[in-house]
């Protein structure tokens, strides 16, 4: 599955509009902790209460990684290889959790950019995130 | 997955706010699903699936009405949705995975139209509600 030119353009255009990706990724992290409690199991060392500074900090890490991914759409496996090692080899994150975070990220972006969040953009973003997930958890697709 | 008292309150409040837009939201969720997950189109070969299609609008209304009925019968979903359950499982034979896809698209649609109401807690309650509805609709699949 290659990301088509139209999808890339859509994702890049949206990413340019986002003025503080960390805010959205922090919210996207907060949502699965409430809706899908099993996701908390990977963060027992963090304060997971709403507004937690640690979740905000982790949100910024996720934001930086996604921004890197947007910049390296042609070479995701290599761009994200260190993160793949971290999530799959070291943390052994069950891949289902990436899809849950993906869902929560789409919901978060839809809330904040409703006018932009057309069905076509949603589809492009979902494809982009699926590629990121493939790069982070290649054996489980 | 049992809906707590808080979940039921959240779902009723959220659906109440949706009000008359439920049909339009249902149609938009379907459109998002057809575009994002093209395999779902296989169940609608008889429909015009282009943007603004009258058939998709009408189907959105049906979905919305069923969900409204579900919200009114949160304590008894299996019997309230028994006809829809028979339809989807026995007649249409919809693979259960598709209900998750529509649920996802419904939540995205609601988030886009009601951003300030779509708190993490309300999101969680609605997700549980839709999961329960999906379970009922797929219960007779096999």
Automatic annotation (TrEMBL), chain A:
Q: What are the recorded GO MF terms, alphabetically?
A: haptoglobin binding; heme binding; metal ion binding; organic acid binding; oxygen binding; oxygen carrier activity; peroxidase activity
Q: Which residues form the Globin domain?
A: 2-141
Q: Biological process (GO) annotations? A: hydrogen peroxide catabolic process
Do the record's keywords include Cell division?
no
Q: Which GO terms describe its cellular component?
A: blood microparticle; haptoglobin-hemoglobin complex; hemoglobin complex
* InterPro entries listed in its UniProt record: Globin (IPR000971), Globin-like_sf (IPR009050), Globin/Proto (IPR012292), Hemoglobin_a-typ (IPR002338), Hemoglobin_oxygen_transport (IPR050056)
Q: Name one Pfam family in it.
A: Globin
Which PANTHER family would you find in this protein's record?
Answer: HEMOGLOBIN FAMILY MEMBER, HEMOGLOBIN SUBUNIT THETA-1
- Family from the record: Belongs to the globin family.
Name assigned to this protein: Hemoglobin subunit theta 1
Species of provenance: Catagonus wagneri (Chacoan peccary)
UniProtKB/TrEMBL annotation, chain B:
InterPro entries of this UniProt entry?
Answer: Globin, Globin-like_sf, Globin/Proto, Hemoglobin_a-typ, Hemoglobin_oxygen_transport, Hemoglobin_pi
Q: What is this protein called?
A: Globin domain-containing protein
Give the family this protein belongs to, as stated in its UniProt record: Belongs to the globin family.
Q: Does the keyword Transport apply?
A: yes
Supply the Gene3D superfamilies for this chain: Globins (1.10.490.10)
This protein's GO cellular component annotations are: blood microparticle; haptoglobin-hemoglobin complex; hemoglobin complex
BP GO annotations: hydrogen peroxide catabolic process
Sequence ranges assigned to domain Globin in this UniProt record = 2-142
Q: Which domain of life is it from?
A: Eukaryota
CDD domains from the entry? Hb-alpha-like (cd08927)
> What is its quaternary makeup?
Heterotetramer of two alpha chains and two beta chains.
Recite the UniProt keywords alphabetically: Heme, Iron, Metal-binding, Oxygen transport, Transport
A GO molecular function held by the record: oxygen binding
What is the documented function of this protein? Involved in oxygen transport from the lung to the various peripheral tissues.
The answer, when asked if Cytoplasm is one of the entry's keywords, is no
């Amino acid at each position: 599955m290659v990301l088509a030119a139209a999808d890339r353009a859509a994702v890049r255009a949206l990413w340019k509009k986002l003025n503080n990706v960390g805010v959205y990724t922090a919210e996207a992290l907060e949502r699965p902790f409430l809706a899908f409690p099993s996701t908390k199991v990977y963060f027992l060392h963090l304060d997971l209460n709403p507004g937690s500074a640690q979740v905000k900090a982790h949100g910024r890490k996720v934001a930086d990684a996604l921004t890197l991914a947007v910049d390296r759409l042609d070479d995701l496996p290599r761009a994200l290889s260190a993160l793949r090692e971290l999530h799959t080899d070291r943390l052994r994150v069950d891949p289902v959790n990436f899809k849950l975070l993906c869902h929560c990220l789409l919901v978060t972006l839809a809330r904040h950019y409703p006018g932009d969040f057309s069905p076509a953009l949603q589809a492009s973003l979902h494809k982009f995130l699926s590629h990121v997930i493939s790069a982070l958890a290649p054996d489980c697709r | 997955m049992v809906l707590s008292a808080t979940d039921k309150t959240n779902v009723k409040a959220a659906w109440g706010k949706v009000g008359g837009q439920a049909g339009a939201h249902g149609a938009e969720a379907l459109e998002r699903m057809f575009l994002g997950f093209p395999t779902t189109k296989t169940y609608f070969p008889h429909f015009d699936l282009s943007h603004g299609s009258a058939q998709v609008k009408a189907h959105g209304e049906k979905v919305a009405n069923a969900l409204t009925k579900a919200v009114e019968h949160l304590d008894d979903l299996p019997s309230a949705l028994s006809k829809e359950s028979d339809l989807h499982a026995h007649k249409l034979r919809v693979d259960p995975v598709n209900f998750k896809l529509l649920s996802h698209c419904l939540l995205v649609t609601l988030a886009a139209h009601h951003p300030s109401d779509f708190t993490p807690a309300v999101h969680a309650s609605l997700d549980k509600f839709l999961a329960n509805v999906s379970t009922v609709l797929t219960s007779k699949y096999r």
